[in-house]
Specification:
Length: about 80
Amino acid sequence: MDWGVATASRPGQRRSGDRHVVAGAPDGSVLLAVVDGLGHGDEAAQAAERAAALLGDHPQDSVIALARRCHAGLQ
């Protein structure tokens, strides 16, 4: 699978709250996810990084399980 990503930080910010996940699961399926941390800058980037890690660590899970995992992991 070919894929690409383009990102940019908001002017005046060092980091962006936008992340992506492309992770293969043991069964051969692939999880594709886009994460947008609320707000801008470091706080948004930290939230997005946490969500991306939670998703990428469990690419075989259902969408519902992934949403629940992110909800619990970001509280």
